């Protein structure tokens, strides 16, 4: 069986994780203008290609921040051909889907995804971790979902961009809001409970995220303001005496 040719656009920490996970299943190249990213790819024996090479790819995986997605898609669109599959990995889904629908040729299939893990949480393997898939255009998401589930062992959740963002506003938005707030407190008191230690472990899992990840999750998700309001009201309520 012929191995698919996949180009990963963006070779930061997550792009590198994707390349490592899929190295045994696809022929991989990366496209990234950063000399540092290119050097890292070559050190891992991964080909570096220019943007025009996306015309040869079966799959294009976008591992770029949500803030840079529009420019990225605009730069790629002229080189795309019918039947290719475009996969984004942004932490929010409604706005990336809107952009992909608006910018990409109608003959390109679109699969919006959100791996619910990153380099830190995947350091012991990805089997059993969650992968959200939002089918947007075409049917090739079905064999992709089967591969992710049966070969990589991921827990695949198929949903809409709207439902993803609504639930992620709590599971990610709330976590990042709390982590941001807890950054103002002392993290290493000698008097500590196990529950505090677990809380700090959760904070540590997101504290290394790039600033643009926080921006996308907290400011790019239209459901997060309501989550913040509920949180603030609950905190205010805890100060009231009866």
Automatic annotation (TrEMBL):
It holds the Pfam family PDH_N. Gene3D superfamilies: NAD(P)-binding Rossmann-like Domain (3.40.50.720). Residues 3-242 form the Prephenate/arogenate dehydrogenase domain. The keyword Manganese does not apply. Keywords: Oxidoreductase. This is Prephenate dehydrogenase. It comes from Paracoccus saliphilus.
């Amino acid at each position: 069986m012929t191995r698919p040719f996949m180009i990963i656009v963006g070779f930061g920490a997550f792009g590198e994780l994707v390349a490592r996970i899929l190295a045994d299943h696809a022929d991989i190249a990366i496209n990234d203008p950063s000399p540092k990213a290119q050097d890292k790819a070559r050190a891992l024996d991964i080909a570096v290609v220019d943007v025009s090479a996306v015309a040869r790819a079966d799959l294009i995986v976008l591992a770029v921040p949500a803030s840079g997605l529009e420019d990225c898609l605009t730069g790629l669109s002229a080189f795309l051909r019918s039947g290719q599959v475009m996969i984004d990995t942004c932490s929010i889904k409604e706005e990336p889907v809107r952009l992909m629908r608006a910018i990409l040729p109608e003959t390109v299939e679109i699969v919006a995804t959100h791996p619910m893990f990153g380099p830190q949480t995947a350091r012991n393997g990805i089997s059993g971790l969650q992968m959200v898939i939002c089918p947007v255009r075409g049917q090739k998401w079905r064999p992709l979902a089967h591969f992710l589930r049966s070969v990589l062992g991921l827990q695949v959740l198929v949903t809409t961009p709207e439902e993803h963002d609504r639930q992620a506003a709590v599971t990610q938005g709330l976590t990042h809001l709390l982590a941001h707030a807890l950054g103002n407190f002392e993290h290493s008191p000698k008097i500590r409970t196990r529950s505090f230690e677990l809380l700090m472990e959760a904070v540590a899992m997101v504290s290394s995220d790039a600033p643009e990840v926080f921006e996308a999750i907290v400011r790019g998700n239209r459901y997060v303001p309501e989550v913040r309001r509920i949180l603030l009201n609950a905190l205010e309520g805890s100060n009231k005496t009866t």
